[in-house]
Design a protein that fits this description.
CATH superfamily of the largest domain: VKOR domain
Radius of gyration: 25 Å
Largest sheet: 4 strands, mixed
Number of strands: 6
CATH topology of the largest domain: de novo design (two linked rop proteins)
CATH class of the largest domain: Mainly Alpha
Distance between the termini: 83 Å
Length: 311
């Protein structure tokens, strides 16, 4: 009796090209957002993309989270298309070997990316509370890549690959919590009240100390009616405060623009057409966008006190 030949499903034929195409789109999107983040520009996106990109969740080890996303998508692209570049007619053995090596790696990568994206979607809805089309698209693409790696080939042991997926997902989740729970991270940061309790909407604690010059500049800016407009979730705003130091920040003129921020003055911020991003300084009728050096603020404000800034 002749053995019946197993039919090749369309998803088995097209899974690698589809994964490669999705990964290429993801790499292009995260690459663009990385450039935007590094250049401190505004992303072309409706909704709260800028709020997400400026939040403390968007930075890992001092680098943009989108950079790691770009590298992840690029890795998936290479793993997906590498075997396809080997001609099956000329070197079938090499192509078969590459396919066997890359499929488990594709599954591991897609699983880790999907879990991490799922965590970020949870943060997006519960912590940042903003709609980010890039984030939603990226999360959707990771789910599609996971399904394609799971269903895109005939696994010899489906139970084993699912068990591997559970292990990878657990490690990815533990690693994610570990990354964000480092000192100063969003899971381990914030201003504390006198009794040690966390103050909601206050942002990360200021860890630098102020010198005499920083305090004098902060007082001068306050005296002339200057204002720094910011949001508690904005890392660049935190960087600006770090330059002043803890003691000076208590005296500097600051307007909280986030609706859920501590002592929020959202209406004041919304009434200023020149205000396009955080932080922004209004000094003597001039608007300065982005984190400013203390020397720049001193010159713009006509400050004539000590300038031996320590931060």
């Amino acid at each position: 009796m002749r053995r019946r030949r197993q039919e090749t499903l369309w998803i088995h034929r097209w899974s690698r090209p589809l994964i490669g195409a999705i990964a290429a789109i993801g790499a292009a999107g995260t690459g663009y957002l990385t450039v935007v983040k590094l250049m401190n520009k505004t992303a072309a996106c409706l909704g709260g993309c800028d709020r997400v990109l400026s939040s403390e969740w968007a930075t890992i080890f001092g680098l943009p989270l989108t950079l790691f996303g770009f590298l992840s998508y690029l890795s998936m692209l290479v793993l997906a298309v590498a075997p396809l570049l080997v001609s099956i007619e000329k070197n079938k053995a090499l192509r078969t070997k590459l396919e066997g090596l890359t499929w488990p790696l594709l599954f591991i990568g897609a699983t880790g990316m999907m879990v991490f994206s799922g965590f970020l979607m949870y943060v997006l809805s519960t912590e940042i509370k903003a709609v980010c089309l890039y984030c939603i698209a990226s999360a959707t693409m990771t789910v599609l890549m996971f399904l394609l790696t799971l269903l895109g080939r005939r696994w010899d042991d489906r139970g084993q690959i699912l068990f591997t997926g559970v292990i990878v997902a657990t490690l990815a989740l533990v690693g994610t919590f570990g990354i964000y729970a480092v000192p100063g991270g969003p899971l381990n940061s914030g201003v504390q009240a006198a009794d040690g309790a966390q103050v909601e909407g206050a942002g990360p604690a200021i860890t630098t100390a102020s010198g005499e010059a920083e305090i004098a500049l902060a007082q001068h800016l306050n005296d002339i009616g200057a204002n720094m407009y910011g949001a508690y979730w904005c890392p660049h705003c935190h960087d600006q405060k770090q330059l002043f130091g803890k003691e000076a920040v208590a005296q500097m003129p600051y307007v909280e623009c986030a609706p859920d921020g501590l002592n929020s003055q959202t209406a004041v911020c919304q009434a200023i057409p020149e205000l396009k991003g955080f932080p922004s300084w209004e000094v003597n009728g001039q608007f300065l966008e982005g984190t400013q050096t203390l020397e720049t603020l001193a010159a713009a404000s006509g400050y004539e006190g000590p300038t031996d800034f320590t931060n």
